[in-house]
Write a structure and sequence with these properties.
alpha+beta; 133 residues; elongated
Length: 133
């Protein structure tokens, strides 16, 4: 093998290592952007829950209790205006909200259970979640 062939083989080995490392990093970032959150009244009474999937920016919001309350996800992208994905379809229902944001945006979200009747006020809320689109 000539000196030029050794150089080419070394460069190829380095490039394979760089590409493999980049794919592992990209895969890890995508997986870490998916999350879920639960809201409880008095444990173990789960009132609602939601999931966020970064691939396609999809929220799924479940109403887990027959109590006339609605369940929502409130979210912001890059500290912008607040948006809502509302599930007012009743017990054991799920609402899917399919969003469209550029990749790599910071999304902050929280599950909210709204009060019964009267003016809508947040009665329960889950912990704040931080993800990337």
């Amino acid at each position: 093998m000539s000196k030029g062939d050794h150089v080419k083989a070394s460069v190829r080995t380095i490039m394979v290592g760089i590409v493999t490392g980049a794919l592992v990093t990209i895969g890890a970032q995508s997986a870490s952007a998916d999350s879920s959150s639960n809201v409880y009244g008095f444990f173990p009474n789960r009132l609602g829950h939601a999931t966020f999937t970064s691939d396609g920016e999809i929220f799924r919001v479940w109403d887990d209790e027959s109590d006339s309350r609605s369940v929502s996800v409130a979210w912001q992208v890059n500290n912008g205006p607040t948006h809502f994905c509302d599930n007012s379809n009743g017990d054991n229902s799920v609402k899917t909200c399919d969003l469209a944001y550029a990749e790599g945006q910071r999304i902050t979200w929280q599950v909210v259970v709204w009060s019964l009747g009267g003016p809508q006020q947040a009665q329960y809320s889950g912990s704040m979640q931080y993800d990337r689109t």
